[in-house]
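Workshop exercise sheet. Pairs work together: one partner reads the sequence aloud, the other fills in the structure field after running the prediction. Swap roles for the next sheet.
Pair: D.N. / O.F.
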Amino acid sequence: MKNKIVFLDHDTFPEGIKIKKINKDYELVLYGKTLSHEVIERIKDANVIITNKVKITRKIIESASNLKFISVAATGTDVIDIEACNDHHILVSNIRNYAINTVPEHTFSLILALRRSLLAYAESVRKERWQESGQFCYFDYKINNLSGSTLGIIGDGVLGKAVAEIAKAFGMKVLFSTYKGNNNMGPLYTPFEEVIAQSDIISIHCPLLNSTKDLISYSEFEQMKPSCILINTARGGIVNEEALYDALKNNKILGAGFDVCVSEPPKIESPIMKLTKLSNFILTPHISWASFEAIQTLSDMMMDNIDAFLSGHPKNLVN
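Structure field:
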């Protein structure tokens, strides 16, 4: 019987994405979606599993006696119990630097839309406000240039640095934040509290860890400029969603653009979904990573990670 590779959530790739051929001694089994109660049965005889967002818990890991390798079809590994993998000698790899263009481009799509009030103006035109104004233009919503403004970046990896390069092309001043509570990171970094207080736009590009959960909450919103825009294309949970709701409803900041939520998809009654009724809030469905080019690169790298493991030379390991 052939060894088995199981992809648990292939539907997280759009149509047209090609998956490289694998070692002929292995069978690749694709499942479009896998619910939590289906995981154990589907991987019971798998040697390798691929997951994008399906959670792999300790219970699941302990049920899979043949499992030797997990290929995460993403950069973040928060869906995997890494400690349990270590305990059972299971290697885990992730994908790195595939989204170096698509995430920064999406970040600036959100920044530009909010900074220039594009959604508000487009909606007002649909409601015939232009005709009502009786002149060639109207000024119902604030518009500001990017040039000369200050962008605070939380997260100094490849994505944060790529966003900084685009910002500089727009003539923006860039501040890289220190880790919260650590102001001894050298002259290239600005203390977290100063970044929060001084930035016209704050963009998040750090992972979700215990140390970054609720990194921005009520006290941080109190410190921000009333004209500040907050962007999160990283992970839900880094910003406290109740605090975000409070900040936008009470005009503590000017606007926000999010591509991520604590729960995906979010519940209809959640604070973040209630904010979608506001013209100064944009929520996109976790697609900043999802240009066709980026996903094809991700798919290729995912299979390269598996090939490397099968050949005895694993790479991009996280444990």
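Discussion prompt: The two ends are 29 Å apart (CA to CA). What would you look at next?
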